[in-house]
Q: What sequence folds into this?
């Protein structure tokens, strides 16, 4: 890429080039990087949140506990760590839709959702979601009926929010294990709904 070029290099390619340069200069160890990446792919991330949601959908007592004390209920499943010190869980229903934003920076419950997506950190998302949530959700592909009440929750360094998505119709016979793959990070932030298989 030449200086001043308007052509964009894909992020994956830039990341690979940066990793190679840092490795060549002895600033990072590729094995350490692989362990960190594996940790975020398997130990920290949206799969953890999906397991929390599936358990809440299939176990009414756990669902009540999760909505009453999200931090304790999530910790019970072993999901602790960075930005999971205090998590409040809110439930989406046919009449109410919750969505999460962090207007100041990008506070986010890493232990259950993994790394925040780039759109979550984008200043436009952070500003517009508070002012015009219905429009922003529509632009992101989620059109809600006019009678659905939208509540925007602002994450902060004191409180992180997690959305318990509405369980899709037609999944009543599915087990928690079968439900996990249906639950997306975006649904747990509130910018999407969980779709039936």
A:
């Amino acid at each position: 890429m030449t200086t001043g070029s308007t052509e964009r290099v894909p992020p994956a390619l830039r990341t690979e080039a940066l990793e190679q340069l840092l490795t060549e200069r002895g600033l990072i160890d590729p094995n350490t990087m692989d362990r960190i990446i594996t940790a975020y792919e398997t130990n920290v991330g949206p799969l953890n949140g999906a397991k929390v949601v599936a358990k809440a959908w299939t176990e009414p007592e756990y669902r009540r506990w999760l909505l009453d004390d999200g931090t304790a209920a999530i910790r019970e499943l072993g999901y602790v760590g960075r930005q999971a010190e205090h998590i409040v869980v809110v439930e989406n229903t046919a009449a109410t839709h919750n969505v999460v934003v962090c207007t100041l920076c990008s506070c986010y419950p890493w232990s259950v959702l993994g790394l925040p997506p780039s759109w979550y950190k984008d200043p436009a998302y952070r500003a517009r979601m508070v002012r015009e949530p219905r429009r922003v959700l529509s632009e992101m592909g989620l059109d809600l009926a006019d009678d659905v009440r939208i509540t925007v929750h602002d994450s902060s360094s004191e409180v992180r929010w997690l959305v318990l998505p509405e369980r899709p119709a037609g999944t009543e016979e599915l087990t928690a294990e079968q439900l996990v793959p249906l639950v997306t990070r975006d649904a747990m932030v509130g910018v999407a709904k969980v779709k039936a298989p």
Remarks:
- The chain is about 45% helix and 10% strand.
- The chain has a mean pLDDT of 89.
- Residues 97 and 150 are 5 Å apart (CA to CA).
